[in-house]
Amino acid sequence: DAKTTQPTSMDCAEGRAANLPCNHSTISGNEYVYWYRQIHSQGPQYIIHGLKNNETNEMASLIITEDRKSSTLILPHATLRDTAVYYCIVRPNTGNQFYFGTGTSLTVIP
Amino acid sequence: GAVVSQHPSWVICKSGTSVKIECRSLDFQATTMFWYRQFPKQSLMLMATSNEGSKATYEQGVEKDKFLINHASLTLSTLTVTSAHPEDSSFYICSAILILAGLNNEQFFGPGTRLTVL
Fold it and tell me: A90 with A35: CB under 8 angstroms?
């Protein structure tokens, strides 16, 4: 079962930062947080992942709270092509399975 | 990045027939592949975990005799939907990982296969 909760939908103005929150209050010590996104009728695309420290790559930044019970994905300058469903996933310790939650449908508005 | 392909990208079949979907890792050897199903406006649901050379592990509620999974090589897993019915119409997505000791293993997803059963 998914161990994450996310808002159902969010809007963001083009060019502004999009901040997508995720709660994972039952996360265990060495479970990773992954973020993927899915554009309509395509397979999910990897964005970023982290354990404890904040992470940044060419696509986004991941901010994980000190207690690890929540995280925020930041798209620094949202474009129309960032419109997608964003999934926050906690990978369990016991395997590599991903259990997807409902995700956040992000709409970037011109 | 690693590429995973699926074939076909879409298929339409008659009720009662069987459909095979292929999932290939194109530039790496995948020790483990996963199969997901996604209904319209819903999230991805994990169906099964497929390990090369061994039987697949199915999630609770997924019928193993209906959804046959074969992972005969490190680059190919197949999902066969047997005796398909309209309620099996869905978007089927596979993913693959290469398990390396000490590394955190990212899943690479295929583009999905749209199955429509008439």
Answer: no
Peptide bond connecting A110 to the previous residue in cis, omega within 30 degrees of 0:
no
| Nearest Cα to Cα of residue A55 among A79, A30, A72, A69 | A72
- How far, in Å, CA of A104 to CA of A31, rounded? 21
Helices (H), B8-80: none
Nearest by Cα to B81 from B5, B17, B6: B17
Q: Do A96 and B110 touch (CB under 8 A)?
A: no
Sign of CA dihedral B30, A98, A33, A71: positive
pLDDT digits (tens, 9 = 90+) for B78-112: 999 999 999 999 999 999 987 665 555 778 999 99
Is residue B46 within 8 angstroms of chain A, CB to CB? yes
Q: Where are the beta strands (DSSP E) in chain A?
A: 9-13, 18-23, 32-38, 45-50, 55-56, 61-64, 70-75, 84-91, 104-109
Q: Are A99 and B112 within 8 A, CB to CB?
A: no
Amino acid letter for position A54: N
Partner-chain contact B104 A49, CB within 8 Å: yes
> Mind listing the pLDDT tens digit of every residue in chain A (110 residues)?
778 999 999 999 999 999 999 999 999 888 899 999 999 889 999 999 999 989 999 999 999 999 999 999 999 999 999 999 999 999 876 678 899 999 999 999 99
Q: Do A35 and A88 form a contact (C-beta atoms < 8 A)?
A: yes
The backbone torsions φ and ψ at residue B4, rounded to the nearest 5 degrees and listed phi first, read -120, 130
